[in-house]
Amino acid sequence: MTDTVAYGEGTIAAGIRSRFISGVNGLTTHMLEAGYDTPGRPALLLLHGFPELAYSWRKVMLPLAEAGYHVIAPDQRGYGRTTGWTADYDGDLISFRLLNYVNDALALVNALGYRAVDAVFGHDFGSPVAAYCALVRPDVFRKVALMSAPFGGPPALPFATAEAATEPTGAPTQLHAALSSTDLHDSLAALARPRKHYQWYYATRDADADLTRCPQGMHDFLRAYYHHKSADWAANQPYKLAAWSASEMEKMPTYYIMELAQNMAETVAPEMPSAEDIAANTWLPDADLAVYAGEYGRNGFQGGLQSYRCGTNKVHTAPLALFSGRAIDVPSIFIAGKSDWGSYQKPGDFERMQGTACTDMRAAHLIDGAGHWVQQEQPEQTSRILLDFLRQ
User: Fold this and answer.
1) 376 to each of 49, 110, 250, how far by Cα in Å?
2) Structure letter (DSSP) for residue 11
3) Right CATH number for 16-157+323-391 from 3.50.30.40, 1.10.3720.10, 3.10.290.10, 3.40.50.1820?
4) What is the pLDDT of residues 304-324, one digit of tens each?
5) Cys bridge to 370: 92, 121, 138, 374, which one at CB 3.0-4.6 A?
6) With bands split at pLDDT 50, 70 and 90, how would you rate the model's confidence at 170?
7) CA 43, 358, 242, 189 torsion-angle sign
8) Taking Cα atoms as reference points, which of 48, 168, 183 lies closest to residue 120?
């Protein structure tokens, strides 16, 4: 991988710099940082999702730094210019387990000379990483903001089964548990309009090639994908689903519950915005989109897709049950766009997060005019909410 092209290609504001940190849990971590020029500042760690980068935080980093923080946003394992991982589909997936991402975060904080950070913020896939950071090491990650992906708690272990004739299954508390049943996948496929779940598609061998070598090209694929999940796509009007059932899940847009016979590039292609809409887009102009297209054009998507493979495989999710019954006790908030289906794609998690999974949940903010990419679509409101939370 080359880094001869300056990260951000001139689209990152002055005051944010790019640099590499070696020896981070086996990685050479690439990160963006702001507020780095004043020693002794408290730190914030910002963790991005899929298919994103450290770059996804560019619009909120300076407001946070101006409030007195050293703001740290790494390219996570499998993404961007961070190296030390392998995208071999047939390779060992252990390094992409969720708890190893927590190790990555802890190692980076230590490498930068901090015993603790004032808060960890996680968006999309970064949200469960941030959640487990706060759950496992509350002494290091003193507050947590979960964004666009609610945390419903660790997977539950079977309880009081010693005298039972058969082990009760109980209600699933995580997506991988809820959808591990062949029956449910078969039910989605058997619908009048046959469907499949996007996370299981992302775990397939073909997914990376489908996206990387799609007919429309990397730039247009990402444009359609980001548009489809944003507030700009008028049909994004999410609501709570009643249950984990094929008949309920098929109500979600096709970027979550896909057509059975289509890949993701084919799914989003019809939603490509017009040239006029693209020219009018202020939250993701083409120059910014080109940064994502350039980084994913070099690496492909498999590094990020590895975490979906772990999340849909009980062998790799089993270690999370070690924390069964534990809750996040540090102060927490949730932020998402009002037009984001991510808040409801795992029925019950939004409620469990505010009830039992987080014992000090301060607020759940659903922001007008934002879909899934909330800190990019509405950076001013997101920054204000984060700063208010930090001041509490």
Assistant:
1) 12, 28, 28
2) -
3) 3.40.50.1820
4) 999 999 999 999 999 999 999
5) 374
6) very low
7) positive
8) 48
